[in-house]
Write a structure and sequence with these properties.
Layout (H helix, E strand, L loop, with lengths): L3 E8 L3 H12 L4 E5 L5 H5 L31 H14 L4 E3 L3 E5 L7 E5 L2 E10 L6 E2 L12 E4 L13 E5 L3 H12 L4 E4 L9 E2 L2 E2 H7 L29 H6 L3 E3 L2 E5 L2 E4 L3 H26 L17 H4 L4 E3 H4 L1 E6 L3 E2 L18 E2 L2 E2 L4 E3 L13 H22 L8 E5 L5 E5 L13
Parallel strand pairs: 1-2, 1-6, 2-3, 6-21, 8-17, 9-10, 9-17, 10-13
Antiparallel strand pairs: 4-5, 5-6, 7-18, 11-12, 14-15, 15-16, 19-20, 22-23
The chain binds flavin-adenine dinucleotide (FAD).
């Protein structure tokens, strides 16, 4: 049976794969998107039940389609997934679901790539990895498996009822950890929250959501995280959207602890950094207010004053006398949720696109292996790259690059090159080779 051929193969049909399909389609580039599960599967099955988007509906979307309903609302995760299904249908994206890409290799004897899939091989001239920014859950090896204690990653958390009765320790307090801990606390659980360094922009200030402020202050387009002291931000659209305020969570019953650092004989150790971490978050929060005020003044905007936004709640007891160690049994902890992030896994990409540690080698998604591209990675080109509104722009850049490469490859000189050959008589003869006529169908050979 002849092997299926395609010009561009996009791997993954989350938002990154759908964005690639939109731009490739507009540019008239033949392509196919392979998705091992369903469109936007991550939003359906790798998120907790109550998750809503971190940004309001007017912002967390692609330019070509609005969410139905209130543009200032925070859309639920199923509606986000439905949005991408609708988007794919609107642009007639050539997506094949239920097909897993298992390897991509470069054949020695011809250009392009041989792609092995769960439904047979495909040959592609270009491959775009759109397999997500958060691929493999990471749990630091601090706590050995211990009888009577359930340990899960935040990617596997669904709702409070899933956990055995008893207290819960949530490790990690950026967006996922802070929201999960808040939900468990509201459900009446005794909750400990291990807080590391973080940023925490105000949910809204002077009548504008933080996504607006980060937009006008040009922070979504910052091109690279600072090499040192970069921290992830804690934001939440839950309960109508509230600033993540750890002192408020403590006042509502949750116990804050510093970074989880060790475990010995069922006793967890915490770094003495809780105060520093919370105050570091405060500085980030206050710096956004300062920059917002300066922007309002400089641009003469008529936005309401909000001085009370600078009033921070008093330090709770758990900050004044921080807990540095905790006997899990004595504290009644029966579950630990590790909200400790994700790693990338490009084991299927068997070409020189990643370094020795498996990290993608690329610039703005154009990989070190010609013909291989990445979209959707954190900080691919800027802060917004792994988010809904950012990936669309990165996908456009990557598509433009592919279009340029194709035009180079389609080039034929107007004057055919001279071909120098040796005659049988030992004389050198210069012969003009017949001019090769470009044939679009050959582009994928
Ligand atoms: C808890 C959480 C909340 C978030 N909230 C927001 C938010 O509110 N707003 C926002 O803008 N961003 C948010 N994000 C960040 C980001 O938008 C999501 O992670 C989003 O799912 C990334 O989209 P993606 O297409 O890059 O990757 P994914 O959604 O992960 O899509 C990758 C796809 O590739 C498929 N795939 C993987 N490997 C293969 C293979 N070998 N063969 C075939 N298919 C494969 C997967 O099945 C998957 O469908 C959130 C992330 C998390 C974890």
């Amino acid at each position: 049976m002849p092997v299926e051929k395609i010009e561009v193969l996009v791997v993954g049909a989350g938002q990154a794969g759908v964005a690639m399909s939109e731009h490739l389609g507009r540019a008239g580039v033949p392509h196919l998107v392979l998705e091992r599960a369903r469109i936007a599967e991550g939003w359906r099955t790798s998120r907790w039940d109550s998750l809503v988007a971190n940004g309001p509906a007017w912002h967390d979307r692609f330019p070509g389609l609005k969410f139905a309903g209130d543009p200032d609302a925070f859309v639920g995760k199923e509606a986000v997934a439905d949005y991408f299904v609708d988007y794919a249908s609107k642009i007639a994206a050539p997506i094949r679901c239920g097909v897993e890409v298992t390897s991509v290799q470069r054949p020695a004897d011809r250009p392009g790539f041989r792609v092995e899939t769960s439904q047979g091989p495909i040959e592609a001239r270009y491959v775009v990895a759109a397999t997500g920014p958060f691929q493999r859950p990471v749990m630091p090896p601090i706590m050995p498996e211990t009888a009577g204690i359930v340990q899960i990653h935040s990617a596997d958390y669904r709702n409070p009822a899933q956990l055995p009765a008893g207290a819960v320790l949530v490790v990690g307090a950026v967006s996922s950890g802070a929201q999960i801990a808040d939900e468990l606390n509201r459900a009446g659980r005794r909750v400990y929250l291990s807080v590391g360094p973080h940023g925490r922009p105000p949910r809204a200030y002077r009548g504008r959501d933080f996504v607006w402020w980060l937009g006008v202050l040009n922070k979504w387009d910052v091109e690279a995280p600072p090499t040192t002291d970069h921290v992830t931000i804690a934001v939440s659209g839950a309960y109508g959207g509230q600033t993540v305020e750890f002192r408020r969570l403590a006042a509502e019953g949750l116990t804050l602890v510093g970074r989880t650092s060790s475990c010995s004989n069922g006793v967890l150790g915490f770094a003495p950094d809780l105060g520093d971490n919370v105050r570091g978050g405060d500085m980030d929060y206050l710096s956004v207010l300062d920059e917002a005020d300066a922007y309002v003044a400089r641009n003469g905007l008529d936005l309401p004053q909000e001085p009370q936004a600078r009033d921070l709640p008093p330090d709770p007891a758990c900050m004044i006398n921080p807990i540095l160690s905790l006997d899990l049994k004595a504290a009644g902890i029966t579950s630990i949720i590790w909200a400790t992030g994700f790693a990338l896994d490009f084991g299927w990409l068997k070409v020189a696109a990643c370094d020795d540690h498996g990290q993608p080698r690329h610039r703005r998604g154009v990989s070190a292996e010609p013909g291989v591209y990445f979209v959707g990675l954190p900080w691919l080109s800027r802060r917004g790259s792994a988010f809904i509104w950012g990936v669309w722009h990165d996908a456009k850049f990557v598509t433009d690059h592919i279009v340029k490469q194709r035009s180079y490859l389609a080039y034929e000189p107007a004057t055919p090159p001279l071909d120098t050959t040796q005659t049988s008589a030992g004389l050198s003869a210069q012969v003009r080779s017949p001019r090769h006529q470009p044939n679009p169908s050959e582009a994928i050979r």
